[in-house]
Amino acid sequence: MTDGKAKSTPLLDIRNLRIEATVYPPGEAPKTITLVHDVSLTLEKGKVLGLIGESGAGKSTIGLSAMGYGRGGVRITGGEVILNGRDILKGGKEGFRKLRGREVCYVAQSAAAAFNPAHRLMDQVVEATLLHGTATRAEAEKRAIALFKKLSLPNPETIGERFPHQVSGGQLQRVMTAMALCSEPDLIVFDEPTTALDVTTQIDVLSAIKDAIRDTHVAALYITHDLAVVAQVSDEIMVLRHGRLVEWGGTRQIIKEPRQEYTNALVSVHEIEHAEQNPGATPFLSVKNVTAAYGGGQVKVLKNVSVDIYPGQTLAVVGESGSGKSTLARAITGLLPPEQGTVTFDGRPLANRLADRPKEDLRQLQMIYQMADVAMNPRQTVGTIIGRPLEFYFGIRGRERDRRVAELLDEIEMGKGFVDRYPAELSGGQKQRVCIARSLAAKPKLIICDEVTSALDPLVANGILKLLLNLQQHEKVAYLFITHDLATVKSIADSIAVMYRGEVVRYGSKSKVLTPPFDAYTDLLLSSVPEMEIGWLEKAIKGRRMASAGN
Amino acid sequence: MSSPILKLIAQRIALGIILLLAISVLIFAGTQILPGDVAQAILGQSATPESLANLREQLGLNDPAYIRYFHWLGGVLTGDLGTAMSSGQDIATSIKGRLWNTLFLAFWAAIVAVPLAIALGLTAVRYRNGWVDKLISGLALASTSFPEFFIGYLLVYFFAVKWQIFPAISTVYEGMPFGERMQAIALPATALTLVVLAHMMRMTRAAILNVMQSAYVETAELKGLSAFSVIRKHAFPNAIAPIINVVMLNLAYLIVGVVVVEVIFVYPGMGQYLVDHVTKRDVPVVQAVGLIFAAVYISLNIIADIAAIVANPRLRHPK
Asked: Residue A136 needs a FRET pair 20 to 30 A away by CA distance; which of A389, A505, B219, B249 works?
């Protein structure tokens, strides 16, 4: 490679890119909206550019434009996309097809959904290579196996014979990376490749991707909303907001000396000061030796779990997917009656089954879910949704109900104007706020929050956490806060239960749980949380004591 | 490894057998409820009470119903479907040729209709919402919306009367040369194809469109596959289960629902045989044909179920 020459002609040169889409708002004439406003970028051969921003920032749209692709009616209406010295937008459909899978490959957010369930992995991995005729089948398979090895997949020789459902999510994400590398492209577009993974798996995949990029000299556009992740793999970072460029610079400059206020907000997110409260004398809800199973006792998902919740405090339950966090919530609410053990509330045992609990017990335990938009009836207005618990539990109707709804809307920092809106007319953060108001309307002692901020952008999630903390002070409500995100735990918890494979492996006050010495699993969990620091990834991988469950 | 799949298939087959037995009970009970007496029907108005009693004894009509049912069922299981009252002929022998004719017609109609419907469905998806899609859907719906007798008479009018390419009456006989036989069934097979085409085509289109939203279809597009390869290689295999289901339903229709078409073209198949004997009130024949139709219907549905199970990679290759 001749460096001087590579610099003079960049691999990818996007100039004044404008992307538009037609939207069809209900009851209105179709209108054209602009998703990307005249964004320009260049990428040298073998370099990695991180595209970062919140949802709606246009980062995926820009990434896909390098392949001439627009999702669902999205059109590139202006500018040039110059790849290897030619404007690909002038090549037409035939031209796009020749470069997709050959010069530019794509790694999707959810490999589990992006692999075809009907075909074996190997057939899918070599498909693009064979299609473009760059290698024979035998050569392509040999190359694929070498890539499986490089990405440290288990059984690299035989994993290709498996079907997607037979391989874990973290492994699939690496197979997808191998699939992108197999046709030896010049550029790979990584679209949130680790976002859907557990934090302990994310670090493995991230490191595998980073090594593969380094060894194959492929250039990459790395799209994510997580600045700490992108700081580990990128040479440069571009911050986007609402389809416009905010800031573009070297990785060190962006995370250490951000020049724009918005970048600064992204960098400093997650920092909420929350002083730990001491547990009171008696817990109001005690889970004692609870064991629960699915499939009529066949699959034990909770093993002998005991935790206490104190009035007005937050117990955070952390762990990877499949560790039994949400099952614990289901056991407490009675949705999954425990096989053994008891749940006591205010000194008396709660009925195991939801159907056996009186209305008053139901009122005291409320839930908020991860997916706010599917937790609400799309055909009811915000007023009806929040008013429903008032009618159901307290029989409050008419003007009194409207007054309470207005109060609740005020508490979640949303104005009166939202009463007549439908869920579809709200943003993700607003939807979650409405769900919070709905649970507060029942005046419960405990709200179970199941990954309530996981589907939200960091800044919005931050707002929700602050709101929850404020509400706790006013309403004296306790939270059982289920999450896989340790940064969230640090900012909200009073006590923490770490779960691993259905068991509580570490439990106590926040300060106690987060103070060394750690058990092996807690150590793995804590050391896997990406930090906004260059070189963190290598350090974290080196310091590990146990492998993650995703492998 | 394949034990869960074998278990599922065994369950389906066992369920099918139970269902078939239940239907045999229904058919038997239904014919018992009908007024009239077999012995009376055979001997006619002039029968003496003695000869009636003798024949009843001979036919076992004095036995309780459940004994007669098992007697009948035992006969069916050993290939003895009884004797037709109207002609006195053995039912199994006369049905054999008829069933063969019906299957022959259904087979050739299916050979044309199924691939054509799926190909049209794939094409409609490829050019979705364009004029090709609308043309295919429009024509297919129009052909289904016409009553089958109307299509039949249209075909007869043009191909038999006006242009005289094919015969209007589809007479076939044993030992008929294959070419002539094919010429004879050309019109009824075309009519049947037109009747079942749209249903299968629309279902293929809908099932594939449903899959086209998936992320793996986008992956395939981003590999540079052509639009048709994406549909054929990546969408179609995942839409196969609902398509097989609707194909099997239509195959069943081709066998058990062809009465009208067979009558129009005077084709000596099961449908015509059934209609003839219903008018003659020949209960044993109606029972036998009803049972055969039920068996065909249930077996094709079992095949559809099994095909859907086998087509699912999660069941074929468990973790």
From this structure: B219
Helical packing angle, B91-126 and B178-212, nearest 10°: 40
Is B221 near chain A, with CB under 8 Å?
Answer: yes
User: Number of Cβ pairs closer than 8 Å across A and B?
Assistant: 72
What lies within 8 Å, CB to CB, of A546 at 6+ separation is A520, A521, A523, A524
The two tokens of residue A266 are 């992204």
CA–CA distance, A262 with A15 (Å, rounded to integer) = 23
Distances (CA, A) of A271 to A483, A487, A536, B121, B228: 17, 8, 19, 55, 51
Domain range for A486 is 285-377+443-515
Per DSSP, the three-state class of A450 is strand
Helix B91-126 / helix B270-279 crossing angle, nearest 10 deg: 130
Which of the four pLDDT bands, split at 50, 70 and 90, describes residue B19? very high
User: Can you give the pLDDT at residue B2?
Assistant: 55
Distance from CA of B225 to the nearest CA of A (A): 7
pLDDT at residue A551 in the model? 42
Tell me how far apart the terminal alpha carbons of chain A are, to the nearest angstrom. 36
Contact B237 A119 (CB under 8 A): yes
Secondary structure of B255-317 as H, E, C letters: HHCCHHHHHHCCCCCHHHHHHHHHHCCCHHHHHHHHHHHHHHHHHHHHHHHHHHHHHCHHHHC
Whether B317 contacts chain A with CB within 8 A: yes
CATH number at residue A373: 3.40.50.300
A290 and A179 co-located in one domain: no
CA dist A465 and A219 (Å) reads: 37
Question: Rounded distance, CA A272 to CA A348, Å?
Answer: 36
Structurally, chain A folds into a number of domains equal to 2
| A179 and A312 in a common domain | no
Which domain covers residue B101, as residue numbers?
97-281
Q: Is B315 on the interface with A (CB under 8 A)?
A: no
Quote the Cα angle for B173-B179-B184, to 5°: 55
- Give the model's confidence band at A488: pLDDT under 50 very low, under 70 low, under 90 confident, else very high: confident
Q: Give per-residue pLDDT as tens, B268-281.
A: 888 888 888 888 87
Closest CA in chain B for residue A100: B224
Q: Write down the pLDDT at residue A412.
A: 87
What is the amino acid identity at position B7?
K
Res B282 pLDDT > 50 = yes
Q: Does A71 sit within 8 Å of B237, measured CB to CB?
A: no
Find out whether B238 and A116 touch, Cβ atoms under 8 Å.
yes
For residues A485 and A515, the answer to whether their CB atoms sit within 8 Å is: no
* B235, B221 Cβ separation under 8 angstroms: no
User: What interface predicted TM-score (ipTM) does this complex get?
Assistant: 0.79
Are residues A251 and A341 located together in one domain of the fold? Answer: no
pLDDT tens column, A243-276: 899 999 998 898 888 898 888 888 876 667 777 7
Helix axes B65-77, B283-311, angle to 10 degrees: 60
In terms of domains, do A324 and A257 share one? no
Contact A79, A38 (CB under 8 A): yes
Q: Is residue B152 part of a domain?
A: yes
Tell me which residue has tokens 């015969």.
B167
At residue B173, the 3 state secondary structure works out as coil
Structure confidence at residue A51 (pLDDT): 93
pLDDT tier, B14 (very low <50, low <70, confident <90, very high otherwise): very high
